[in-house]
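Design a sequence for this backbone.
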């Protein structure tokens, strides 16, 4: 199972069509915004959800891996 995480959404791949599919939107992001910022047509999951914010533990791990915060804010 492959996933792509961006600042707009969580993506996976449709097993049948092998096309990229939006599985969940980040809070405050509309599906139109994701499509407008992508250079190819996307599929959207029928049960499209909203991603949960990272937990304190997840943020601590990320900040340990990126202490200068070059990749995370």
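Sequence:
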């Amino acid at each position: 199972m492959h996933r792509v995480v961006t600042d707009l959404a969580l993506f996976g791949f449709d097993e049948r069509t092998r096309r990229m599919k939006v599985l969940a939107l980040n809070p405050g992001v509309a599906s139109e915004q994701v499509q407008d910022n992508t250079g190819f047509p996307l599929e959207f999951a029928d049960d499209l959800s909203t991603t949960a914010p990272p937990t304190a533990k997840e943020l601590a791990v990320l900040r340990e891996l990126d202490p200068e915060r070059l990749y995370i804010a």
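The longest helix spans residues 56-65.
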